[in-house]
Amino acid sequence: MSETINSLEDLGTATGIETNDAPVREQKLDAYGRAYATGKRKDAVARVWIKPGSGKITVNGKEFVAYFARPVLQMILNQPIVAAERVDQYDVIATVAGGGLSGQAGAIRHGISQALTLFEPELRPVLKKGGFLTRDSRVVERKKYGKAKARRSFQFSKR
User: Fold this and answer.
1) CB within 8 A of 77, min separation 6: which ones?
2) Residue 62, CB half-sphere, CA atoms under 13 Å: how many?
3) Would the N or C end of the chain have less CB density within 10 A of its end CB?
4) Is 57 left (phi over 0), alpha (psi -120 to 50) or beta?
5) What gap in Å lies between CA 20 and CA 12, rounded to an integer?
């Protein structure tokens, strides 16, 4: 630290300062050429594999349209693929357990996003900006003693 920086021009020529500290991300694939990631949401945990293909999404051995009948849940699954502009380019195989259908859809969405960044690291800024890489940490609050539910009290009666 013997070098003193007095202006912005000096900052550019300063030695010993690393300008690019961002970690270099590289593609991580298994022996079958697939990217694997785990997604979580509420009590649901999803294991997701992504490989190049025709855009087929399979959840627990079923077509995702059959597994998630509600269009909103189908849309949630497709969000990261649409945001990355990779529709009909990857096949997704997911196994999900725990929670309800909404939590499972969110877990698969999280897993697809993580797996896409492992398959194509240059997609990370797009998915990060869309908020797909952040795990939604909201879970059900526990029931407290002396309460009917987590916060609801029993009905009050004066007499």
Assistant:
1) 57, 64, 68, 105, 108, 109, 112
2) 8
3) C
4) beta
5) 13
| 1, 9, 11, 12, 21 from 5: Cα distances, Å | 10, 9, 6, 10, 20
- What's the pLDDT tens digit per position in 84-135? 999 999 999 999 999 999 999 999 999 999 999 999 999 999 999 999 999 9
| Residue 84 to residue 125: CA distance in whole angstroms | 10
Average pLDDT of the residues of the chain:
90
SS3 50: strand
- Flag whether the pTM goes above 0.90: no
Cα–Cα distance, 107 to 39 (Å, whole number): 5
